[in-house]
């Protein structure tokens, strides 16, 4: 099996959807769930599922990304992942870090990339008057929320949607999209997954 490390910062619902998909004839298995916050709710969910966990708090590094990443690399390299999945990991990674996992690091982003890179994607889509929105999984490169798109799920923005209602609906699509992309990717197939 391919070994998959998953990086999280919060509740880890995408991490759970990935972990729970890696059973049976799936070509990959989880090897580590790693967070930049020891209080991330997802760490307990991973531990409950019998997966190794680790946390490296970014705060003591006070913006020294290289020093933070050097610590983050220790448990990550120890786990010897073939694939690294960012799943709600809210720290920007340097090109130096990303280059160590070139071609084998994925991220899920809550917009139809290349639209709305960065934060507050749902509010920005509503404010722009978009009728469509969604989520994307892409290969991670040095540029933020850039890199080849490996899958997208689209949905309609409804009248009365708020950033919160829209985020909740997009999240249900994320939970279908990311496992579908990972399964293909772990089988060396980079054909984009398009949902629904
Ligand atoms: C998800 O919506 C994910 O797409 C987003 O954070 C949420 C994490 O939820 N990621 C980003 O905004 C990355 N910049 P989760 O912890 O329940 O998976």
From TrEMBL:
Annotated Gene Ontology cellular components are: cytosol
Annotated keywords: Purine biosynthesis, Transferase
An individual GO BP term? 'de novo' IMP biosynthetic process
Residues at which N(1)-(5-phospho-beta-D-ribosyl)glycinamide binds: 12-14
The UniProt entry, under SUPFAM superfamilies, shows: Formyltransferase (SSF53328)
Where are the residues marked Raises pKa of active site His as a site? 145
Catalyzed reactions per annotation: N(1)-(5-phospho-beta-D-ribosyl)glycinamide + (6R)-10-formyltetrahydrofolate = N(2)-formyl-N(1)-(5-phospho-beta-D-ribosyl)glycinamide + (6S)-5,6,7,8-tetrahydrofolate + H(+)
Query: Which residues participate in (6R)-10-formyltetrahydrofolate binding?
Result: 65, 107
Q: Where is the Formyl transferase N-terminal domain?
A: 2-182
Molecular functions per Gene Ontology: phosphoribosylglycinamide formyltransferase activity
Identify the catalytic residues: 109 (proton donor)
The catalytic activity of this protein is classed by the Enzyme Commission as 2.1.2.2
State which pathway it belongs to. Answer: Purine metabolism; IMP biosynthesis via de novo pathway; N(2)-formyl-N(1)-(5-phospho-D-ribosyl)glycinamide from N(1)-(5-phospho-D-ribosyl)glycinamide (10-formyl THF route): step 1/1
> Which family does the entry's similarity section mention?
Belongs to the GART family.
Q: Which HAMAP family does the record cross-reference, listed alphabetically?
A: PurN
Please give the function described in this protein's UniProt entry.
Catalyzes the transfer of a formyl group from 10-formyltetrahydrofolate to 5-phospho-ribosyl-glycinamide (GAR), producing 5-phospho-ribosyl-N-formylglycinamide (FGAR) and tetrahydrofolate.
From the Swiss-Prot or TrEMBL record, give the protein name: Phosphoribosylglycinamide formyltransferase
Q: Which organism is it from?
A: Ruegeria faecimaris
Supply the gene name.
Answer: purN
């Amino acid at each position: 099996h391919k070994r998959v490390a998953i990086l999280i910062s919060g509740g880890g619902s995408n991490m759970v959807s990935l972990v729970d998909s890696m059973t049976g004839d799936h070509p990959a298995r989880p090897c580590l769930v790693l967070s930049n916050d020891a209080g991330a709710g997802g760490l307990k969910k991973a531990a409950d599922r019998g997966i190794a966990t680790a946390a490296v708090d970014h705060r003591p590094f006070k913006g020294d990304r290289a020093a933070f990443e050097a610590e983050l690399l220790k448990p990550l390299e120890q786990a010897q992942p073939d694939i690294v999945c960012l799943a709600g990991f809210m720290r920007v990674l340097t090109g130096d870090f990303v280059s160590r996992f070139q071609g084998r690091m994925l991220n899920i982003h809550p917009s139809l990339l290349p639209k709305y890179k960065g934060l507050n994607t749902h509010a920005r889509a509503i404010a722009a008057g978009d009728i469509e929105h969604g989520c994307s999984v892409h290969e991670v490169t040095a540029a933020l929320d850039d890199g080849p798109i490996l899958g997208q799920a689209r949905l309609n923005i409804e009248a009365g949607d708020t950033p919160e209602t829209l985020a909740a609906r997009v999240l249900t699509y994320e939970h279908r999209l990311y496992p579908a992309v990972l399964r293909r990717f772990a089988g060396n197939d980079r054909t984009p997954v398009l949902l629904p």
